[in-house]
Amino acid sequence: MIEKSFASLVIIGVLLLGAMGLSIVSTTTASDATGATQAVNHTKQIVFLPDAPSGWVRKVEGTSIVSKGWSVAEGTYNVSSNHDLEGFDAFVGILDYGSNVSEQEFWDRCPEFTNMETKTVTVKGFQAREQYDKDTNHYILQVNINNRFVVVIVTNRGKDTLYEFADAIDYKGIVALGRDTEYPAKSTEVGKTPGFELGLVIASVMTI
Question: How many domains does the chain have?
Fold first, then answer.
């Protein structure tokens, strides 16, 4: 199983790198008189977290930080026999930075772990970064959606599982969110208080 701290590190790395760039992005868009785009509420992103595969259990949560201009929805997935154990078998995060940036700026925000094998791939027409740590058998996939949203998938259940989750995501629906387009929603169960655990981890990182 994946330790919660590992997946949190990936998500926090994306968020913190993104936060450092937001002030620059905001300044740029203001000078261009285009204005900044507000991130969509995490409740809209939660809809696009994939359902649990057969024999798995899913828990979802999310948070929207209006003052920072970003939002995130998270799904943790366990094989049913593991659902009472600490950690999880797979993790999916959907983050909205609230602003479109250049492709280079987008990837500058996303953490690249130097101790992992890294390659560029395409997922349903979107550029993505796949990373693999052979020592821990962790696979990470970061999908760039129009230089605004990033889908992060983490698992140590194998590459096939990584792409099973990746293929189950409605990327066009997420694109529509970025255009403020109404998109058919499906019902979803929400676990504990949205963003509680992520908020605690981010707070602890910011105080180090």
Answer: 1
Alpha carbon 96 to chain centroid distance? 8
pLDDT in tens, 177-193: 888 644 444 433 343 33
**Edge-first strand listing for the sheet containing 117-123:** 56-65, 70-79, 90-96, 149-155, 138-145, 126-133, 117-123
Predicted pLDDT at 67: 59
Give phi and psi for 144, each to the nearest 5: -90, 115
The pLDDT, as a whole number, for residue 195 is 36
Distance of CA 67 to the CA centre of its chain: 19
Q: Which domain holds residue 183?
A: 4-206
pTM of the model: 0.75
Question: Which residues share a beta bridge with 71?
Answer: 64, 96
Give yes or no for a contact between 60 and 46, defined as CB atoms under 8 angstroms apart. yes
